[in-house]
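Hey team,

Filing this mostly as a record. A colleague (T.K.) asked me to run one chain through the structure pipeline before their review meeting, and I want the input and output archived in the tracker in case anyone asks later how it was produced. No errors, nothing strange. Just documentation.

Input sequence:
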Amino acid sequence: MSASAEPPRALFCAALATLAPGCDKSKPGATTIESPRTRSAEVGDGDGARDVACGPRGLPPDRHFVAEGLCARVVATQQGRLRGLTFAPNGDLLAVTVDGEIKRYRDVDRDGLFASRPPETIVWATTGADNGHDCVLDDEQLYCGSRSGVKRWRYAPHLDRGGPGEDVVVGVPEGGRHRKHPVGSWEGFLYVAGGSASTVDPLPAGHDTRRAVVKRFALDKYTPGRPLQWRDGEIVTRGIRNATALARGPAGGVAIDARGDVDRAGEDVHDDVAGEAIVSLEKGRVDRPLSSAEARSSPLAIAFVPRAPRIADALFSRWQGGAFVALHGSWDRGASTGHEVVWLSFDAEGKSADVTELPHEVVFGGGKFGAPHDGAWSWKVGDAGEDPVRPAGVAISPVDGALYVSSDNAGGSSPTLEASGSLYRIARLGR
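Output structure:
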C-alpha cells in the first residue's frame, strides 16, 4: 500500500510512562506520572507558549507512529481479544470480544485511563457465542452479532448489567469459515452480513440467498419474543464473501469486504491476491468498489469522521468527512502489511479518489520517531505491552472527539504478553 505524499509527516511527541499489568490504577506501581519525558511539543505563541508531553501512558516514541501533532496512549491493557467499538452518547465506550463479552468502559475518575476492574471496566453482557465481532448502538438499543443472528439490549448509563438480551434476527448460518455477523443500523433498518461457508464455496442450492450476502430488516416489523427470520430478510448485496464491517457513509451504506481471495487456485498465490474492497451497499448491485486496501491487510472496521467542532479540536479538521479504517494485518503474507489505522478521503457523494494506488494517510501504526513502517510491530514497557498490535476496532468519542482503537492480540512471540489486547486513544498533544 503506497501512502499519498500529502500531508507531509514530521516528528511527533510521546512520553514514556510507567505501566502496570492490566492498567489497574488501584495497584501499586500503576502511575499516571510520566517517567521519563522523551519529547514534547510547544503549544501556543509568545509568552503563553508551553511544553506539552503526551500524557500518562504514552507509547514509546521509538516503537510506534502517529500523525504529526498527535499523541497515542494506551488506556487499557490485557483486555483479551477486543474487536469492535462503539460509543454511547454520554461517553461510555462499549467493546465486544471474540469470546462474546460486551465490555463497558467508563472513566469514572476522569484521568483518561480505564482501570481493569469495576466501576471503570465491567462485563456488561454476553452474546452467548464465540464469534463476537461488533455492535452498534441505535436509539438506546444495542445490537450485536450472535451465534445465529443478532441480539439486542436496552442501553442506558444507569444500567450496570444488560441481562440476557433478546433475539432480533435468527437463522443466520452458523458454521463455516466466515461465521461472524457484522451489523449496522440506520434509517429504520437493521443490516446484517452473512459470510460464505468457505474461501471457495461449492455453490449449493440457495447459495446466493443464505450466504455471502448482506440483508436488511425493517425494525418496525420486529415484535419482542418473535425474532425476525434470516430467510425473510431483504437482500441488499450478493457475492460479498466476507463482510467485516457495515456503516453509514456520507452518501449511503458502506461495507468492507475483507475477501482474502480464493484458495486452491492450483499454485501458491497468497502474496498476489486482489486487494481488500470497501464497497457500496446498493440493492441489486454487487460489490461496487469505493476504495480498497492492500491484499492481506485485513480491514476489520470503519468509522466515518463527522463534521463537528470537537473533531477539529481533538484531531485534524482535514479528516472530517473521511473515514478511519482499522487494518488488522495477516500472517498469510511474505512481507507483513497492515497492523495500522489509516484515514481515507471520501467526497460528499461518498466516493474516494479514482486512482490506481490507494490515497491514504497513516494515523497510527508501527514506526520510529515520526517515520511510519508498514507491517507488524510491538511495544513493551515493564510488564505491559502488546506483540503484535492488531487494530480491530475504531470509534470516535462523542464527548471530546478523540479516536479510540482496539487491538485483539491474544498472545504472540512474548509469553509475558499473552492474552493482552489493548485500547488506545489518539488525539492532539495536550488534549
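Quick notes for T.K.: The radius of gyration is 21 Å. Residues 1-24, 26-52, 263-270, 411-418 have pLDDT under 50 and may be disordered.
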